[in-house]
Specification:
9 strands, 297 residues, 43% helix, two-stranded antiparallel sheet, alpha/beta
Length: 297
């Protein structure tokens, strides 16, 4: 297997470490693929529920959720975070089994596909968050008439990076691009040709704009909002809500794009609207969002 070239040559020690991680990932993936999908998902969910609360991130997640919900008790927060770990464990299994999910049309249902109708043949900017299983958001996009390009954060491990991209890229007919200096040019070209682009937009980004999230100051990427405004595209927020096991409802909401003479304020206004929608969805199912993220500032 050939790894993608990195900017800095890997030291021998780092290369061995990365290869060991990649081999472990492939081995676990092989075991999961040998099992029925729902068994694999449940197995990893239970493993994460058991082991993850022993890590320092469990306390971080509880602190985050109690800051977002000041009225919540410690026991209530602990239960939600344990449920979160189970969901994330399921996501870890489902990420390497996306092709199995894709082959079963009953597993992903679009609750309100009409939201996408006006974007067919025109393209749109889609934003989602780390909730439910964000990896399946694009599962039926092409059936809706919205072939997608995806933008993601590249892993440090080039071997694991290549392996996981290989599990996802079939969902993105217009390409799957890691964030980089030339990615913006590629994305703009796709939008000009009336393609659609999807972002996971709930991570903290100090290069972005300052907004409010759960009544606390936060930093967020403004790129989706700026692209929708500049390219005159609709901006659609999407969430994959886990129902039972590896079955999901895809819920969509068009976000109004601010278009005034002040492009900077427009980006802030629209990004705030995106996060207001994210917060509404999170409050409906708090255990499905990834509370371990360092979202606030």
């Amino acid at each position: 297997m050939k790894a993608k070239k990195s900017r800095r040559p890997l030291t021998r020690r780092k290369k061995l470490s990365f290869r060991a991680e990649w081999l472990a990932l492939r081995s676990i993936g092989g075991i999961l693929r040998s099992m029925p999908l729902d068994w694999s998902s449940a197995f990893m969910g239970n493993m994460w529920r058991l082991i993850a609360p022993m890590t320092h991130r469990h306390a971080r997640a509880k602190a985050h959720i109690m800051a977002a919900y000041p009225e919540m008790t410690l026991n209530e927060a602990d239960k939600i975070v344990r449920d979160m770990w189970e969901n994330l464990g399921r996501v870890s299994a489902e990420t390497v089994l996306l092709s199995k999910i894709h082959k079963d049309p009953s597993r992903v249902t679009y609750v309100n596909p009409e939201v996408f109708e006006d974007s067919v043949g025109e393209g749109a900017v889609l934003v989602t968050m780390h909730s439910g299983n964000w990896e399946v958001v694009s599962d039926k996009a092409e059936e809706l008439g919205l072939p997608l390009a995806g933008v993601y954060q590249k892993l440090k491990n080039p071997y694991s990076e290549e392996y996981l991209v290989g599990k996802r890229n079939f969902l993105y007919k217009l390409g799957l691009f890691c964030k980089g200096h030339d990615t913006g040019t590629k994305i703009i070209s796709i939008l000009r040709k009336k393609g659609s682009v999807a972002f996971v937009a709930d991570v903290r980004d100090h290069r972005g704009v300052k907004i409010e999230f759960f009544k606390q100051p936060s930093a967020a990427t403004h790129i989706p909002a700026a692209l929708a405004r500049t390219m005159n595209k609709r901006l659609i927020a999407v969430v994959a809500r886990r129902k039972k096991g590896s079955r999901f409802d895809i819920i969509a909401k068009e976000i109004p794009v601010a278009r005034t003479k002040d492009r900077v304020q427009d980006a802030i206004t629209t990004t705030q609207a995106v996060h207001d929608q994210f917060e509404e969805w999170i409050r409906e199912e708090p255990s499905q969002w990834m509370w371990i993220m360092k979202k606030w500032i």
